[in-house]
From TrEMBL:
A Pfam family it matches: NmrA
Coiled coil, from the record: none
Top-level taxon of the source organism: Bacteria
InterPro entries: NAD(P)-bd_dom_sf, NmrA-like, NmrA-like_oxidored
Keywords: NADP
Domain spans labelled NmrA-like: 2-238
PANTHER family xref list: NITROGEN METABOLITE REPRESSION PROTEIN NMRA FAMILY MEMBER, NMRA LIKE REDOX SENSOR 1-RELATED
Species this chain originates from: Streptomyces agglomeratus
Name this protein carries in UniProt: NmrA family transcriptional regulator
Amino acid sequence: MRVAVVGATGFQGGAVARLLAERKHRVRTLTRRPEGERPALAGTAFVNGDLAHADHVRHLFERATHASVVMPLVYDAETVGAYARNIADAARETGVRRVVYNSNTRVPRASTDVAAFETRRLAETVLREGLRGSDVELVVLRPPVYLDNLFSPWNGPALAKEGVLAYPLPAATRTAWISHRDLAEAVYAALTVDGVAGRTLDIGGSRSLTGHELAQAFARGLGRDVRYVPLDPHVFEEGLARVVGPVAAAGVAGIYHYLASGAGPDLMAADDGAAGALSVRPAPVDEWVARQPWQIWSDEATAAS
């Protein structure tokens, strides 16, 4: 395949680009970053440009056979809608065979006032309408929450040193946690397997876990006691704002405010048969945990002291 990967400079799109390159497919992505600030993506060609410019997106899609799309951390409806229209137009005009759109989150059935849900619902709608009547197939994947969020400077040290797993989900909320790598496997399958064109699939891990069950899985993977601590979404948002800015942080945190309110208690749970349709088997949480180099957080803490 020759795959246009929209969002490859981010964590999710980057995981997709790496997997495709590992399997010897040709990968291109769009970026506004100067050469010295681009992530290390072996096997990926960078195209200078911006999703807001239709000609830039079309250039990215030229000679592509497939496309993988995840939107950046932008939650303005007009902007996201324009991005999606440019992607749909480019896919139609260049004759891409299939587009896989990762919505970056599950999306409630009913409309909400949460921009993180509604802009992703909008992008899906615009893509469907823009590709209707063409030969371009669309597959939509809706993931829950990423395990990689927990292997981070915000969670890693507390897990490695103190056995504390703090996250802005209520302890009772069942979540089918998935890793970026298993997301990439799902995207790869959605790009290649038969029988999924036109479908929207809720992908996720093999089990849905409460916060305390998640802590137990981490305890097995780490070989130490771990306790789950529900983090106030406001505290989470304030910390995230220092990294990505207040606007993007408010967009991301909107998901956690929604879940903390008690709305959509099963939104992030299980899947809708996606694993069978895609023939993927996400790794159990404890196995994923055991594979991560947690020692780096202990080493960093030691070096800092």
